[in-house]
Every structure is written in C-alpha cells, then in structure tokens.
Amino acid sequence: MLTKTVASLAILATSALAQVPICSKYATALNITETQLVEDVLVLALLGNTTANPPVAGILASSSPVLNFFNGAGLTTNRNNQPTSVNFLDGGGAASLQNGTLGTTGSNQLTLANHLVEYVGFLLNCNETFPVYTGNPNMYAVHKFMNISQTQFTYFDTAIENATKMWDLGSWL
Ligand code: HEM
Q1: Stated pTM of the model
Q2: Could you tell which of 112, 138, 151, 154 is best to mutate to test the pocket of ligand 1, judged by most ligand atoms within 8 Å of the CB?
Q3: In which domain of life is the source organism classified (predicted)?
Q4: For the chain, what is the domain count?
C-alpha cells in the first residue's frame, strides 16, 4: 500500500513539475492566492460536502475510515521511530476549519495543516512565494505506523480528487 502511495506521489510530482504551473493557472482563474487555493481544496477534502457534485466524503467525517489516524485513537504516528498516539484535531477540529482557520497556534492540527498545504504547493509547482515545506520529507517514515489499507487509501484519495472537482480542477490528478 505504501509503495502505491509513494508511486502516486512520484507521478503527481513528476507531472506537476513537468507541466504548466497548475497552481498559478487555477489561482489566477479563481482570482485567489495560490495558498488560498491549496488551503480551500485541503479544507474541503477534510470536511467534505454532501451537496457537491460529486459529493466529497470528508477525511474527518465521523464515519471516515481514516479518522482514527487523526484523532489520536491509536498508536499510528511516527515519533522518534516509535508508534505514538497524537491528536491532530487539537486546534479546534472541524469547527475551526469551518470557521476559516486551520487551527490554534501551537496545535498539532495547525502544524499538520501547514505542512500539508506546503507539501501540496510543492507538488503543484506553486509560486516562489508559496511557503516552503518544513515537515519530514520522508513520506514512508511519516506514514509508516498507519498500515493504511486499500479501502482507507481510496477513501482519502477520492476525497481529495472530488474536492478538486468542485472547482473543476480534475486535471490535477
Ligand atoms: C490514506 C492516506 C493517508 C492518511 C490516512 C494520512 C494521514 C496522515 C497523518 C495522520 C499525518 C500526521 C503524521 C505526523 O505528523 O507524523 C500525515 C502527515 C502527512 N501526510 Fe499523510 N496521509 C495519507 C496520505 C498522504 C498523501 C497521499 C500525501 C501526499 C500528498 C500525504 C502527505 C503528508 C504530509 C506532507 C504530511 C506531513 C508530514 C510532517 O508533518 O512531517 N499523506 N498524514
């Protein structure tokens, strides 16, 4: 499963770097900043939207098969190469995302949200003023203790894919 994850990332990164700057193209079309574009897609994928077409199944929805990786329910986070329980919803959770903030200062939630925005910005070849990725670049190590199943990966992947479709950004994937 992780091999697939890494392969998907490699394809995404390669295509993003080789092509037109997708980030600026869509941010310009939508008249928003590149950071806002990536944040909007991320927040939509996290929260979900049942009325979108196609509907976006939220990564943090109560029925989400990957929620347990984010709420500290299990020893699934890698800290010093040890399986550790970390609550990534400690910055206000879904409510804070609904209110337009990524999380309170100093929270695990804000750190993760910022890292995800930075990383996706890098993958999408966003502009030079886009915040540089400051997390762990080793995706294998980061996700090592999650033992992500096919069902979980598909759910996560589809949430992001359908979030991009709400802005007609399907060509990202
Ligand atoms: C089922 C699929 C996935 C699940 C459940 C998942 C879950 C998580 C969780 C819980 C974390 C926090 C771990 C930590 O801070 O140590 C994390 C970190 C991260 N994930 Fe994933 N992830 C998945 C797939 C992906 C994919 C496809 C990407 C690439 C776009 C990605 C990129 C990242 C990045 C950049 C971080 C931040 C690492 C850091 O802060 O050092 N993840 N992921």
Answers
A1: 0.87
A2: 112
A3: Eukaryota
A4: 1
